[in-house]
Amino acid sequence: MSNMGYAGHMELHEPELRDVPVTAVLAALADDVRLQIVRALAEGGEYACGTFEFGVSKATRSHHLKVLREAGLTRTRVAGTSRYVRLRREELQRLYPGLLDAVLAAPARA
Amino acid sequence: MSNMGYAGHMELHEPELRDVPVTAVLAALADDVRLQIVRALAEGGEYACGTFEFGVSKATRSHHLKVLREAGLTRTRVAGTSRYVRLRREELQRLYPGLLDAVLAAPARA
DNA sequence: ACCCATGTTCGACATCCGTCGAACAACCTC
DNA sequence: GAGGTTGTTCGACGGATGTCGAACATGGGT
Predict the structure, then answer these.
(1) What pLDDT does A109 receive?
(2) Measured at the alpha carbon of residue A21, what is the angle toward residues A15 and A23, in degrees to the nearest 5?
(3) Distance in angstroms: CA B107, C1' D21
(4) A60 beta carbon to strand D: under 7 Å
(5) Is A39 part of a structural domain of the chain?
(6) Element (H, E) at A29
(7) Residue B110 within any structural domain of the chain
(8) Best label site of A22, A92, B8, B9, fewest CB within 10 Å?
(9) What is the pLDDT of residue A6?
């Protein structure tokens, strides 16, 4: 059948940032592994999920990326078998000015 | 006996802010009740613990104030049977510039 | 077509966390 | 000192969370 489209891209769940409570954003950032991921993402463009090797299994990594995505912190682009993740910096900055910068500026290992 | 001193003030556990991991600070802020408390504290000076009526029992309130204190967010002064709590704004601002302001500026009910 | 690489999902498990009532402790007042 | 006020601590309980291995899905390469 022809109405199948060229799809398969399964609609990743990426909420509007304004619908995410601040506490959810903070909770997403309040984890060591996730904060490392966010720091890495803050360096620049897009990263494949596999890029992040922080001593956890790929199941756990996948879980953390999902938490970040559903907290409105990241956006994911699907390309083949890989997924490319990037920070939603501008949106974040618009809704919570200074928050991300402040967190990123904090000493990495307290 | 005279060597009893005039004590009983039991040494509240208030860590150095630099010893608290950022993730702990964020986790402390990542709760609705605690964020309400912090917002109230941000209004000004000192508040007795009993001031905070946010629909939780006093046991729970006590718990949250402990979490905030041990995350280095508040300082507590003991006076009689009351405890007066205040935000450690300057210290926070010095170690995590902009963080608290960004969180406080966020819309209260997302 | 087969295999491999990349990620997600599914239990399962242990731990942490928010919540409460009840008991306790300290202090003030009468 | 008896009683009331203020706040902490102690289980207990239910729900969330981080972690993993194994199974699954999808797509690329040879």
Answers:
(1) 67
(2) 125
(3) 42
(4) yes
(5) yes
(6) helix A22-29
(7) no
(8) B8
(9) 39
Q: Cβ of residue B39 near strand D, that is under 7 Å?
A: no
Record: contact A31-B19, CB cut-off 8 A: no
- CA of B38 vs chain A CAs: smallest distance (Å): 12
Q: Is B99 part of any domain?
A: yes
Selection from A69-73, A78-82, B13-17 with the highest mean pLDDT: A69-73
Give the DSSP H or E segment for A85: strand A82-87
**Cα gap B55→B41, rounded to integer Å:** 17
Distance in Å, alpha carbon of A37 to nearest chain B alpha carbon: 13
Residue B13 lies inside a defined structural domain of this protein: no
CB A110 under 7 Å to nucleic chain C: no
Measured in residues, chain B has a length of 110
Domain of B67, CATH number, reads 1.10.10.10
Give me A86's structure tokens: 């990037």
Q: Is pLDDT at A2 greater than 70 in this prediction?
A: no
